[in-house]
Write a structure and sequence with these properties.
alpha/beta, Protocatechuate 3,4-Dioxygenase, subunit A, six-stranded mixed β-sheet, five-stranded mixed β-sheet, elongated, binds benzoic acid, binds fe (iii) ion
């Protein structure tokens, strides 16, 4: 150990693992240590910079609680969350995307064709499609959770003016795999910038905007669960999402809606404005 030097420290540390170390733990931790040490050597990390990095992590811990996790936000704004999503998304299925911090358990059930607009103001939209397997067959009994911002860019939970489960639902597909709901268009919003993740964005001249999106979790017995988001093609932030969540297969179109084209469970709805938009979006799940 007395002979430790920048050239020998990494290997010396890695050789300390005991024989019972789980092979995957050893693989992941070794790579992490090697990259961490190479990073410090590559940039010639100073004491001051090392201390600032540790302060950033300390502040992330201090600002995090049961409702907010600044470490997840670090991972999001540094692109790690999206990289892990992409590495693990099977081909030929709907891509996964970031969960975000605003999902809550216990969304109220809504039948297929139900209304989520309620008292919400904003441009109205019918979102519909099917849940399918990789061969295109409909998946019956899939549970779809949907949550989104109101017209002011805030989720219920962030906004005391909104009821607890405003613009949140859980819908179960029937034999045809179909889902459909009338709602409002979600609005773009900024990720929280009042903590150290915001400092990273500021320090590098990045903005905090996310394109507007609908969040979905789709689960069905025998299939891998999907956590994803769907983004409108005309959103100004589509190509500059602060957390890199957009994938080409997750982009949807707001098409002009026609009442005559709707299924009877929505077509007769009085609450639906004549100038509503229509989104058709299918989810494809891989087997478990
Ligand atoms: C969201 O989509 O709700 C979100 C995702 C990542 C960071 C912050 C917010
Ligand atoms: Fe979101």
């Amino acid at each position: 150990m007395r002979t430790v030097a920048p050239e020998t420290l990494t290997d010396m540390l890695l050789s300390l693992s005991g024989p019972d170390t789980d092979p995957r733990v050893q693989e992941v931790l070794s790579a992490l240590v090697r990259h961490l040490h190479s990073f410090a050597k590559e940039v010639g990390l100073t004491h001051d910079e090392w201390r600032k990095g540790l302060e950033l992590l300390t502040r992330a811990g201090e600002i995090s609680d049961g409702e907010r996790n600044e470490f997840v936000l670090f991972s999001d704004v540094l692109g790690l969350s999206s990289l892990v999503d992409m590495i693990n998304s099977p081909k030929g299925c709907t891509s996964s995307s970031v969960l975000g911090p605003f999902h809550i358990l216990g969304a109220p059930p809504l039948p297929v064709g139900g209304d989520m607009i309620g008292d919400n103001e904003g441009p109205q939209v019918v979102v519909q499609g099917h849940v399918r397997d990789q061969n295109g067959a409909p998946i019956a009994g899939a549970v779809i959770e949907l949550w989104q911002t109101a017209d002011n860019g805030l989720y219920s939970g962030q906004d005391p003016e909104q009821p607890e489960y405003n613009l949140r639902l859980a819908m179960t597909t029937g034999a045809d795999g179909r889902y459909a709901v009338s709602t409002i268009r979600p609005a773009p919003y900024m990720v929280p910038t009042d903590g150290p993740a915001g400092d990273i964005l500021n320090a590098t001249g990045r903005h905090a905007w996310r394109p507007s999106h609908l969040h979905f979790i789709v689960q069905a017995p025998g299939y891998r669960s999907l956590v994803t988001e769907v983004f409108p093609s005309d959103d100004p932030y589509l190509d500059e999402d602060a957390v890199f969540g957009v994938r080409s297969d997750l982009v949807m179109e707001y098409k002009p809606g026609e009442r005559a084209s709707l299924a009877p469970d929505i077509a007769a709805r009085d609450r639906l404005d004549d100038d509503f938009s229509l989104v058709d979006f299918d989810f494809v799940l891989p087997p478990a």
